[in-house]
Design goal:
This protein is α+β, with helices and mostly antiparallel strands and 121 residues long. The chain has two domains: 1-83, no CATH class; 87-121, no CATH class. Helix content is 23%, strand content 27%. It is built from three helices and eight strands. The strands form three sheets. A three-stranded antiparallel β-sheet has the order 4-1-5, with no helix packed on it. A three-stranded antiparallel β-sheet has the order 6-7-8, with no helix packed on it. Strand 2 and strand 3 form a beta hairpin. Helix 2 runs antiparallel to helix 3. The radius of gyration is 16 Å and the shape is elongated. The protein starts with 9 loop residues before the first strand and ends with a strand.
């Protein structure tokens, strides 16, 4: 695993693969917040299972992409930033304005706190 000795929270993305006969989609997850002491591999298990059960069925790319996605998850995913979200500026890096939690999900210019449910945008 890469950089597991960090003492700060990290944003990590995990690869996954979904196949339907001749169509194979290789994607990455939304950034997942991994706190100090939390296992990056365990946090990626849902994406591992998606690839295991849904990735093999496409020919030929399902057979190629699925092992790559499994290896990506088992290696701890890809770190895309420390505390805060990569590319976000200002108050978004400070966490939720209501409760102060750093566990905030960002999508399409909007944010939602996982701790208290507060939405901002």
């Amino acid at each position: 695993m890469r950089d597991t000795s960090s003492n700060e929270a990290q944003w990590v993305q995990y690869p996954y693969c979904i196949s339907l006969c001749v169509l194979t989609l290789r994607r990455t997850s939304a950034p997942q917040l991994i706190r100090p002491g939390q296992s990056r591999v365990l946090a990626g298990l849902p994406f591992l299972f998606i690839s295991l059960f849904c990735g093999w069925w496409g020919f030929p790319f399902g057979l190629l992409y699925t092992p790559l996605c499994i290896i990506g998850v088992l290696s701890g995913g890809e770190v895309v930033g420390g505390v805060g979200i990569p590319g976000a500026a200002g108050a978004a890096n400070e966490g939720c304005t209501r409760c102060g939690s750093l566990d905030v999900v960002f999508a399409l210019g909007l944010s939602r706190c996982r701790a208290c449910g507060h939405r901002s945008g």
